[in-house]
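dumping the sequnces here before i forget
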Amino acid sequence: MSVEPLWEVFVRSRRGLSHVHVGSLHAADAGMALRNARDLYTRRQEGVSIWVVPAAAIEASSPDEKDSFFDPAVDKVYRHPTFYDVPEGVEHL
Amino acid sequence: MSAHVDYLLGLADDALVSSQRMGWWISRSPQLEEDVAMANIGLDQLGQARALLTHAGAVEAAGRDEDDLAYFRDERDFRNVCLVERPMEDFGVAMARLLVFATWQHELYGALSASTDATLAAVAAKARKETAYHVDHARQWTLRLGDGTAESHDRMQAAVEAEWPWREELYDAGTLAPELVERGIAVDPGTLREPVEARLDAVLAEATLSRPDVAAAYSRGRQGRHTEAMGYLLAEMQHLARSHPGVTW
Amino acid sequence: MVLHAHVTDADICNTACYRGGVYGNDFTAPEAARTAPADEPASFRAILVEDGRVEPRDEMPEGYRKTLVRQIAQHAHSEIIGMQPEGNWVSRAPSLRRKAILMAKVQDEAGHGLYLYAAAETLGVDRADLLDALHSGRQKYSSIFNYPTLTWADVGAIGWLVDGAAIVNQVPLCRCSYGPYARAMVRVCKEESFHQRQGFEILHTLAHGSQAQRQMAQDAVNRYWWPSLMMFGPPDDDSPNSAQSMAWGIKRFSNDDLRQRFIDMTVPQSEALGLTLPDDGLAWNEERGHYDFTPVDFTELFEVIRGNGPCNEQRMAHRVGAHEDGAWAREAAAAYAQKQAQKQAQRQAREQAQKEGAA
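..and the predicted 3d for all of it:
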């Protein structure tokens, strides 16, 4: 059994960008997890901000629900600007 | 050798020898994440040593570079405090020593970032950020080992007892030329005692460790009078470079 | 751990059939029963057909999962055992620049091990169990690390040849069908690119240095050449699981193809170094467009895998020693975390009670 829980690590690579999942690591508590993440995932200036989240706290959608979760969006093409016809010569639209 | 060079060598050798001990831990620490962390700390210290040795060589103006100074000086010419050269193969000892050394370095570099030696000031400003992280790392582990299990508490207390006597040399102005302090190049080590000790005491208290009531160890590394461990450390570090003098690596 | 695959039995070491591990490679003996493709879920097959990526919670054949767990774990073990031979020279590096580079490199290897263990854990195994499998000898690591580093030049030879061979193996893994493994490999490959170069630079400097340095460099290359070629695993005919791994998109090229690619890359580099490779049979074959070479004698590899290499015991003792010596510190960290969590809970309860009292 592992005495150290698993943490998921998210790094903001520079200001203006979102935190992105980069991997996971083990640590006994959040404080150590944050520090370990700094040493492990930002050795080459990959980040300006880090989040660590207990892996057990993440609720994820299931691949089984893929159809009901994501397919209904497929036919809603009117949500995208390219759906609309714009007469030639009209700008800034 | 000028007092200025001597002073720079002292700071450089502290960092170099500490880094040499830290390097041992890579692949030997309690967990893989800690291997990465200790390597980071060792690399920071090595970086400080290289910058300071290079600067010492430049001030000396005798054509010696960082490697000449690291590899081709003998034990009696090394100026590091004895604290950092002693064996460090227990994790509690490693963290107790890092706590002492990094806290001292952090205060020192803070003061030196206003040094009239502009190069030293620049090195110190960079190193201050690095050592802030080292202090934090040592503190995190001191809390966990001190206030973890009964076994870890005892082991950490023993580690603290072992390291504490070697602090005194850090505050000892004995060999430092007063003129360097007057010119604003160096910091009087005595002035570091109060802030460093206050920070150390706070961490010990938080970690449920008691402050050791121990006498100062006989420690004269700044004068080149080292412990017996130093010769072996240098023999290992220097032997290859000395076996092939004058070559490039 | 809902991000990760659901597994009931952490079957991490189906290694009775193990014959040899290469990092970034996996091969087992012919007698190992392969999972019949019949149990492949349609959704899994559909992903492979369009060269997509399988993600942790997708349905996948048990054989696929087991193969990945074993391969990724062995790869991770190789990274962390691989810290030792080079770590052996950190204290003796002949210049401070070299010392810094070497420390950073050995540190990277710990980091790579961690990325890979993290990838393996998405398959529903626990890193502690994988480490236990390594420590008890149930899982292996690349045999290349059972050779000693006798001189400084060995650090160069490992960087140039061993990391070079590893990169040839690993670059195709960046396109491996299993997403977390592929992503870990992208990170590893990005970081590894400096490893091979620094090795080449060490050897180049030695080869153009004093007579003694030159000899040191040639000696190291002589000792590491054949073990490096063995890193790609046995010939394809002897590597029955390769076919299955290729069908699953875990492996993209065969052992022999990768070995040939490495040789073709390396021979011109050896000429640039001014060092020879210890194989009289090396010659450019115009017709094939490849270098011919003397077939690798795998007797030695299998001896080393069986535990009879020069450093097998030493590497394991070092690794197990670090783990056992550090147990008290890990336990302390866990106990401290628990105490802090309790204190926090008590604090919250108190605050809640005060709030209610005030209301």
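Chain A touches chain C at residues 1-4, 6, 8, 23-29, 32, 40, 43-44, 55-56, 58-60, 62-63 (CB under 8 Å).
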